[in-house]
């Protein structure tokens, strides 16, 4: 089954977002953005009142229910999902 | 655009009975919920109804959460999609409970302003799939705002006046169709890149698209494709669905129900 | 959709059905909402009945309160009255303010109108100014263009002038060559003629001795006569022989006189000038007389025939001085700052010199070379020229404007009169000043005041502005004599008789006096 697969995710900081030590992650394809947001918040130690947004193609923020399997199917470049992250609204 | 179908889709509603958790003495509120809308939008009126009847009732719009038959209701998914996904029999009254206890982890209570942001992001994603988001980025901020306002105020004509730009294929066909498929008891939707035409140039039907998406050879006769509370014929061309059966976020949301 | 596809029909039909179902419920919702509102109202009414008896008690209490309130009302009324009075005052004040306000408004409106008018005026002025500015710019461009043209024309004029000079000088050279050729011819023919003349001389007695008979220099002491010339100032006076002399001045003619024992006799008037005569000169043989005139011309008279032989024109301003120069030549100086050499045979100007200053007098008769001549200038310079080169050979700077030059008979010393009231004697071999002559009562009379050296070379003399003629000893520079005239009119020119005995002085006021 394809759901067991890992999806390679690459993160890029936007604006004054904190820089991460590791920018590339392997995420289970059935994990969703909501989970990923919580995980990255923990890694970055973001305070509760600070937002964290992810963007695809510097255009739109994926829905929290988006699984990485879907993101890979729809938006991966060379099998790698590129996400931009920002602590403020970046693109509209 | 098929005006008649679009208008009927817009007008379809769900009968709902709304009660407040642990306050049986308060009479329930009955209302018709528009399918295309969001709980974040309609909740304001509902809460006002309750507070006008009982002044002592203190409902914090930022803390309450919604539940139906023990299932938390996600506020950022269109009402119609939530209903189709959680109710067996269409036409039943939907029992919704406003909960004031602590929300389950991961549940987000979303106010109208945040919802507007989420809605816009969905709209962008749909347009990104259709034509790399060119149309939406060429629109003015005012037009984005008007789209949202016409959803909040239930203005069909205003909405389609702007939405038709996003649906226009006179210059260029859509690259791929924004279609999300939901299955009962599965938390996430399925979505992939779907061309409106297959390799031999024929129009792809909704049925084929769903087979491709779910990686199955055919749709079982026991399965039904539900959207807007109706069964979508499997032979409906994908492009027709994309133009006339979308929710305001420009996605076609279809629930695949297996009737065992 | 053009083809009424079955799927559209299916979809449409299902949507209709669901709408129909929801319509029932929606009606129910409306009724329910109405009922719940009514129920709410009724519940409120029931609550009110229960409270009736309690309200009666409250009413009794209220009556008591009312009594208190009445008293307070009366107080309040009186206070009210007072307030009303105040209000009236205030409203009166308000009315006044209102009137003031209206007046101010009217004034403001007036000002507004005025302001608008001024604004429009201002914009008009602005437009005019703009138009004017563009005009000015246009005119300035034109001026610039004209200026450029002018400069070009000036340059052209300068070039043409230079060309003219070159051509003139070339002409002169040609002339000289021709003259030398002619001279050769003449020399050939002269040798023949001389032989003839010697023959005739032997045959005929001498006609007239024109050479001056010099006796000895004597200091004049007595006034011999004083004649009145008809018209205005007498600019120059010259002895022709021991008993005849010529005068020239603003009477526009040269008059010839003969001295007798008492009053001198007027021999002749030579006319031809249309303005004052400025200077006279004779050739050594006394055959020709040159007169320079303010009419920019030079007049040449034949003394044998007493007739005007030539009018030499070419100067562009008054001719101030003239002298015979070399054989058959003359030289003239003018206020136009040009020196011209004339060939009297052809009556043409052979050469022009361009000193930078106005010429006041000229002197030739240099012992060193007949080609050399000197000019006295307004810029305190005496310039020495060699007629063959266009630049001055030498210049001597004196203390003031140089009014006159006089060469001694030997041709070795030149007397200069300057406007700083002194006379200077220059040795023409060294061009150094040998002597200075001055006197407390002597003041140089004018820019053209003449001075003389006596024929014997013993004395120098000059006429002053007070009418006196002062005579110095040439060697010692001591005063020998002051000849006072009664008229005290300025002396413009003096002339010493070639015999050494007799001095003529010409005055500004119609007079010529002779002292012996």
Automatic annotation (TrEMBL), chain A:
GO terms for cellular component: Atg12-Atg5-Atg16 complex; autophagosome membrane; phagophore assembly site membrane. Signal peptide: none annotated. InterPro entries: Atg12, Ubiquitin-like_domsf. Belongs to the ATG12 family. This is Ubiquitin-like protein ATG12. Ubiquitin-like protein involved in autophagic vesicle formation. The lineage of its organism: Eukaryota, Metazoa, Ecdysozoa, Nematoda, Chromadorea. GO terms for molecular function: Atg8-family ligase activity. GO terms for biological process: autophagosome assembly; autophagosome maturation; autophagy of mitochondrion; glycophagy; piecemeal microautophagy of the nucleus. SUPFAM superfamilies: Ubiquitin-like (SSF54236).
TrEMBL record, chain B:
Keywords: Autophagy, Isopeptide bond, Membrane, Ubl conjugation. It is found in: Preautophagosomal structure membrane. Its main location: membrane. One of its GO terms (cellular component) is mitochondria-associated endoplasmic reticulum membrane contact site. The keyword Cell membrane does not apply. InterPro entries: Atg5, ATG5_HBR, Atg5_HR, ATG5_UblA, Atg5_UblA_dom_sf, ATG5_UblB. It comes from the Eukaryota. Gene3D superfamilies: 3.10.20.620, Autophagy protein Apg5, helix rich domain, Phosphatidylinositol 3-kinase Catalytic Subunit, Chain A, domain 1. Residues 9-99 form the Autophagy protein ATG5 UblA domain. One of its GO terms (biological process) is vacuole organization. Residues 113-168 form the Autophagy protein ATG5 alpha-helical bundle region domain. One of its GO terms (molecular function) is Atg8-family ligase activity. It is a peripheral membrane protein. Residues 176-256 form the Autophagy protein ATG5 UblB domain. The keyword Ubl conjugation applies. Pfam families: ATG5_HBR, ATG5_UblA, ATG5_UblB. Involved in autophagic vesicle formation. Belongs to the ATG5 family. Conjugated with atg-12. This is Autophagy protein 5. It comes from Caenorhabditis angaria.
From TrEMBL, chain C:
GO terms for molecular function: protein-membrane adaptor activity. SMART domains: WD40. Residues 94-184 form a coiled coil. Gene3D superfamilies: YVTN repeat-like/Quinoprotein amine dehydrogenase. The keyword Repeat applies. InterPro entries: ATG16, WD40/YVTN_repeat-like_dom_sf, WD40_repeat_CS, WD40_repeat_dom_sf, WD40_rpt. The keyword Coiled coil applies. WD repeats lie at residues 270-311, 312-352, 366-395. One of its GO terms (biological process) is autophagosome assembly. Keywords: Coiled coil, Repeat, WD repeat. GO terms for cellular component: Atg12-Atg5-Atg16 complex; autophagosome membrane; phagophore assembly site membrane. This is Autophagy-related protein 16 domain-containing protein. It comes from Caenorhabditis angaria.
């Amino acid at each position: 089954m394809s759901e067991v697969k890992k999806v390679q995710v690459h993160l890029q900081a936007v604006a004054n977002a904190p820089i991460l030590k590791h920018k590339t992650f392997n995420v289970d394809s059935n994990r969703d953005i909501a989970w990923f947001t919580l995980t990255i918040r923990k890694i970055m130690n973001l305070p509760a009142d600070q937002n964290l947004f992810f963007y695809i193609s510097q255009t739109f923020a994926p829905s929290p229910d988006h699984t990485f399997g879907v993101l890979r199917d729809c938006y991966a470049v060379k099998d790698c999902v590129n996400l931009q992250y920002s602590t403020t609204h970046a693109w509209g | 655009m098929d005006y008649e179908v679009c208008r009927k889709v817009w007008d379809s509603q769900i009968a709902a009975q709304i009660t407040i958790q642990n306050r049986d003495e308060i009479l329930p509120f009955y209302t018709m919920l528009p399918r295309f809308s969001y709980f974040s939008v309609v909740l304001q009126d509902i809460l006002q109804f309750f507070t006008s009847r009982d002044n002592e009732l203190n409902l914090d719009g930022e803390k309450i959460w919604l539940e139906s038959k023990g299932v938390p209701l996600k506020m950022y998914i269109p009402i119609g999609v939530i209903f189709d996904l959680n109710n067996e029999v269409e036409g039943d009254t939907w029992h919704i409970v406003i909960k004031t206890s602590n929300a389950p982890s991961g549940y987000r209570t979303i106010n109208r302003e945040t919802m507007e942001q989420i809605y816009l992001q969905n709209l962008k994603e749909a347009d990104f799939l259709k034509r790399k988001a060119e149309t939406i980025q060429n629109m003015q901020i005012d037009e984005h705002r008007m789209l949202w306002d016409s959803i909040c105020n239930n203005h069909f004509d205003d909405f389609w006046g702007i939405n038709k730009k996003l649906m226009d294929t006179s210059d260029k066909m859509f690259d791929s169709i924004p279609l999300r498929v939901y299955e009962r008891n599965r938390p996430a939707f399925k979505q992939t890149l779907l061309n409106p035409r297959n390799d031999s140039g024929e129009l792809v039907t909704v049925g084929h698209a769903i087979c491709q998406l779910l990686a199955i050879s055919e749709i079982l006769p026991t399965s039904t494709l539900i959207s807007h509370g109706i069964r979508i014929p499997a032979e409906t061309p994908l492009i027709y669905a994309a133009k006339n059966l979308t929710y305001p976020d420009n996605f076609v949301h279809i629930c695949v129900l297996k009737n065992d | 959709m053009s083809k009424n596809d079955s799927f559209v029909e299916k979809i449409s039909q299902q949507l209709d059905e669901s709408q129909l179902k929801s319509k029932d419920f929606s009606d129910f919702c409306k009724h329910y909402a109405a009922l719940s509102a009514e129920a709410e109202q009724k519940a409120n009414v029931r609550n009110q009945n229960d409270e009736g008896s309690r309200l009666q008690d409250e009413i009794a209490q209220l009556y008591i309160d009312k009594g208190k309130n009445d008293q307070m009302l009366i107080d309040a009324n009186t206070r009210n009255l007072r307030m009303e009075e105040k209000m009236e005052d205030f409203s009166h004040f308000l009315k006044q303010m209102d009137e003031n306000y209206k007046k101010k408004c009217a004034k403001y409106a007036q000002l507004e109108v005025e302001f608008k008018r001024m604004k429009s005026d201002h914009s008009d002025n602005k437009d005019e100014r703009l138009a004017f500015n563009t005009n000015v710019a246009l005119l300035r461009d034109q001026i610039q263009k004209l200026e450029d043209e002018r400069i070009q024309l000036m340059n052209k004029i300068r070039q043409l002038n230079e060309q003219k000079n070159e051509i003139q000088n070339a002409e002169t050279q040609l002339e000289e060559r021709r003259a030398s050729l002619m001279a050769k011819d003449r020399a050939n023919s002269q040798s023949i003629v001389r032989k003839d003349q010697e023959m005739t001389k032997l045959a005929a007695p001498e006609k007239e001795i024109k050479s001056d008979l010099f006796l000895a220099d004597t200091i004049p002491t007595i006034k011999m006569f004083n004649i009145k010339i008809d018209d205005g100032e007498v600019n120059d006076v010259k002895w022709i022989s021991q008993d005849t002399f010529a005068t020239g001045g603003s009477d526009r003619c040269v008059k010839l006189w003969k001295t007798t024992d008492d009053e001198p006799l007027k021999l002749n008037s030579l006319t031809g000038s249309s303005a004052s005569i400025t200077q006279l000169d004779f050739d050594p043989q006394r055959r020709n007389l040159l007169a320079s005139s303010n009419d920019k011309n030079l007049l040449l008279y034949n003394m044998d025939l007493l007739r005007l032989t030539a009018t030499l024109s070419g100067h562009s301003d008054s001719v101030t001085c003239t002298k015979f120069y070399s054989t058959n030549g003359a030289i003239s100086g003018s206020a136009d700052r040009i020196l011209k050499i004339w060939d009297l045979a052809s009556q043409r100007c052979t050469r022009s010199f361009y000193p930078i200053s106005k010429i006041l007098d000229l002197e030739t008769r240099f012992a060193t070379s007949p080609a050399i001549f000197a000019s006295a200038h307004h810029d305190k310079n005496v310039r020495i020229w060699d007629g063959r080169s266009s630049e001055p050979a030498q210049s001597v700077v004196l203390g003031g404007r140089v009014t006159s030059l006089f060469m001694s008979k030997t041709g070795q010393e030149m007397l200069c009169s300057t406007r700083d009231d002194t006379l200077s004697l220059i040795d023409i071999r060294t061009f150094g000043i040998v002597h200075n002559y001055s006197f407390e009562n002597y003041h140089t009379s004018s820019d053209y005041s003449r001075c003389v050296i006596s024929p014997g070379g013993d004395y120098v003399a000059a006429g002053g502005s007070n009418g006196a003629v002062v005579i110095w000893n040439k060697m010692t520079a001591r005063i020998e004599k002051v000849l006072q005239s009664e008229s005290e009119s300025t002396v413009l020119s003096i002339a010493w008789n070639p015999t050494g005995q007799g001095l003529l002085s010409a005055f500004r006021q119609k007079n010529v006096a002779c002292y012996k």
